[in-house]
Amino acid sequence: METAFEPVKRGKWKKRVLRLLALGAAALLLWCLTIYVIVVRFDGIPGEGKPTPSDVGIVLGARLWNDEASPGLKERLDLALELYEEGAFARIIVTGGLDAGGATITEAEGMRNYLTAKGVPESAVLMDTLSRSTYENLLFAKDIMESNGWNSAIVITHSYHGSRAADIARKVGISPLQVSVTDSEVLNVPYHQAREVLAYTKWLGTKLFL
What is the domain range of residue 129? Predict the structure, then answer.
C-alpha cells in the first residue's frame, strides 16, 4: 500500500533528474558554442600577412567528383598554387586515399592531376594515397617529410577546418608549423562549421588516447 510520503519522494527525484538534465544540456550547449567560436575565428598561422617560406606545402584532401577535384577541393588547390607561385614552398604533398563513392583514383591522384594541369611539375608533387582522415592526412604527410629530410610545412585547407588541422599537425609533430586557409564560395559553410564542431569534439577525445 502506497504511503503518503512516496509521492513526495517521487516528486523530489523527478525534480533532481530534470535539474541534472537541464545542467547537462546547458553544459553541452556551452561546449558546442566554445568549439564553434574556435572554428569560426581561426584565420591561419600566422593570422596576418603571408607565411614565411617552408620546405613543403601540405594540401588536405577532400572528395573528388567524377575523378576530378570537386569545386571545394579546387579552392584548397588554388591557394596552394598561389603560395607555390609566390615561392612559399617548392614542393607540395597532396593527401587522400580512395573515396567510397565510386572514384577510380585516389584524392591525392586527382589533386596531383589538377596541379600538374596548372603547370606544377609532376616531380614537385608528392602523394599520400592511403589516408582516410585529417589525422592520417597529416600523419602520413609527416612520414613523407621525414623520408625527404624536410622539417617545416604550410598546411593548406579551408578556414572552417583550419583550427582542428593545426591541432592535429602539432600532435603528429610538424614543427615549425604554418596553416594557410581559404574561405569558400562554393560550399555550404554554416553546415560545414556545424559539422566541424562534432569533428573537433571527436578529435579531442581521440587525442587523449594517442
Answer: 56-207
CATH code of 78's domain: 3.40.50.620
Cβ atoms of residues 128 and 146 within 8 Å: no
CA dihedral 17, 20, 26, 27 (to 10 degrees): -140
Cα within 13 Å of Cα(50), Cβ side:
13
Per residue in 147-196, pLDDT tens?
999 999 999 999 999 999 999 999 999 999 999 999 999 999 999 999 99
Amino acid found at 173: G
Whether the model pTM is above 0.85? yes
Where would I find the beta strands (DSSP E) of the chain?
56-59, 64-65, 68-69, 92-95, 125-128, 153-158, 177-182
72 occurs within a structural domain: yes
Whether 39 maps to a domain, the answer reads no
Q: How many domains does the chain have?
A: 1
Q: Does some domain include residue 183? A: yes
Domain-located, residue 24: no
Exposed/middle/buried for residue 171 (C-beta within 10 Å: 0-12, 13-18, 19+): middle
What is each CA distance from 183 to 64, 76, 92, 101, in whole angstroms? 19, 9, 20, 25
Under 8 Å CB-to-CB from 43, ≥6 apart: which residues?
159, 162, 181
